[in-house]
Design brief:
This protein is mainly β. It has a single domain (about 1-180), classed as Methylamine Dehydrogenase, Chain H (7 Propeller). About 0% of the residues lie in helices and about 65% in strands. The protein has no helices and 17 strands. The strands form five sheets. The chain has a four-stranded antiparallel sheet, with no helix packed on it. The chain has a four-stranded antiparallel sheet with strand order 8-9-10-11, with no helix packed on it. A hairpin with a 5-residue loop joins strand 2 and strand 3 (about 25-30). It is globular, with a radius of gyration of 16 Å. One of its GO terms (biological process) is negative regulation of signal transduction.
């Protein structure tokens, strides 16, 4: 198992874990990923993607331990990244956009103006057909990913909510906490 962390110093860190009687963490790689601090990290079975204040998403190939490329679609800090299996990646940023990426060709399939302010968090339903997003516009939005359109908006009454933390996911529903920042 690999433990991956991004840091303020623009570096992606990887540690191999060796479970046994006690967990041992062994440094595996470091990668200077960005020109500004890292703000989001997502992992699937092959890639680690990092978002940054430099407005880019960097792709790191975990199998080959090399940089794979960069995604340039947002105008603002990348605030959240979420893989759906091995085929798709969703990204959100300060520009209010949610981008849906094809991870085979690493191209943007759709760019959605999701929030009036920044997108602060994303969560994808296990079916891959729906996603939730929270923004600084104080809304929780449900997205139909099949059609690439908004399905529902819920205005949030609290002063500001920043993230969706999936605690438990069932096959047909979301169960999540909304964390007050």
């Amino acid at each position: 198992m690999e433990l991956v962390a991004g840091c303020y110093e623009q570096v992606l860190l990887g540690f191999a874990t060796r479970p046994g009687q006690s967990w041992t963490i062994v440094p595996d790689f470091t990668h200077h990923a960005h020109s500004a601090s890292l703000s989001a990290v997502a992992v699937n079975n092959r890639y680690v993607v990092t978002g940054s204040r430099d407005e880019t998403i960097q792709i790191y190939d975990m199998k080959k331990k090399i940089e794979h490329g960069a995604l340039l679609q947002h105008n603002g800090t990348i605030t959240c990244l979420e893989f759906y299996g091995t085929a798709h990646l969703l990204s959100g940023a300060e520009d209010g956009l949610i981008c849906i990426w094809n991870t085979k060709r690493w191209e943007c399939l759709k760019s959605i103006k999701a929030h009036k302010g920044q997108v602060t968090s994303l969560s994808i339903h296990p079916s891959g057909k729906l996603a939730l997003s929270v923004g600084t516009d104080k809304t929780l939005r449900t997205w139909n990913l099949v059609e690439g359109r908004l399905a529902f908006i819920k205005n949030l009454k609290q002063s500001e909510f920043s993230s969706l933390n999936p605690n438990k996911v069932e096959l047909d529903s979301f169960i999540f906490c909304v964390k007050k920042s």
